[in-house]
UniProtKB/TrEMBL annotation:
Its EC number is 6.1.1.2. This is Tryptophan--tRNA ligase. Catalyzes the attachment of tryptophan to tRNA(Trp). It is an enzyme of class 6 (ligase). GO terms for cellular component: cytosol. One of its GO terms (biological process) is tryptophanyl-tRNA aminoacylation.
Amino acid sequence: MDTVVSGIRPTGNLHLGNYFGALKNFIKMQNENNCYFFIADYHSLTTHPTPADLHGNVKSVLIDYLAAGLDPEKATLYLQSDLPETAELYLFLNMNAYLGELERVTSFKDKARSQPDNINAGLLTYPTLMAADIIIHKAHKVPVGKDQEQHLEMTRTFANRFNRLYKVDYFPEPVAYNFGEQLIKIPGLDGSTKMGKSEGEGNAIFLNDEPAVIRKKIMKAVTDSGPTEPNQPKPQAIENIFALMKALSAPDTLAHFEEAYNECRIRYGDMKKQLAEDAIAFTEPFREKMRELAADDNYLRRVVNMGKEKAHASAGQTIREVREIIGFKSF
Ligand code: TYM
């Protein structure tokens, strides 16, 4: 049986990008693998959240996990900060991670550009913490979206480097996983290529958005005046609307609008109305379950306590073996 690990940062409610890029596959994989899914609360500290915001966001991601169908009896669901073994492994990996390679990571360069007043060491070593999360359970598969591909490459580098340094065949090489398909990148509503929490108001549809909010966001999505020639290539913003429709709507709905586009008779207003209704129908079951879960703190507490125990059992064994390999032997 394969071991599967993945996590999501608690930076607010989850959006359709998180769902299609990651969560949907967590749910598919939980039945047939040894799965660990966590909330990456250590990672979110790079942006210095207040204690109240941090706790609130952790709770909403936990609710989103459960509402989307993760089952704590099948997968181990836990908080990253409940597993100090991860922090210890992160320390070990940092001793063998180099400034040049960390500075070259695209996500680091992007953050350094977007938050020049807060280029902290946690941002620089983000990939070593992520590698620690993954290899602490000796994972084989990591379900993530396209934007995490480079981090997975780094994880393999760090795992291999450890094996080579200590002349052991200890950590497997984990791969970014999407059932043999290309990794997913859900675009934003503002014409940008990625739906994201930090990409600005109106870019993302959140799983807990009310129908009126979804309608408003989709009707405002960037489009243009339409194609002028048959079978014209689609500009990015139009490509985005079609990609969202592919994720959310029935195949014949998509085919109908593709045909209209290719025949230059598409009306984007109609397409967006249809997309909004399909997005509302798609998210409706999540919203209902989220409301129920938000009122059940006892259940949420039971879930994280159970996850913590199971995660400790796995991580504890790894860290004992890693300490032994490194040479921290008891007298
Ligand atoms: P985060 O919190 O930014 O995103 C969580 C997951 O959602 C995916 N995702 C997307 N997929 C497709 N299209 C999009 N527009 C989109 N936006 C987000 C991400 O690819 C990711 O899978 N570093 C990670 C969290 C993390 C982690 C780990 C993941 C920490 N440790 C260990 C896997 C294994 C992150 O910031 O994800």
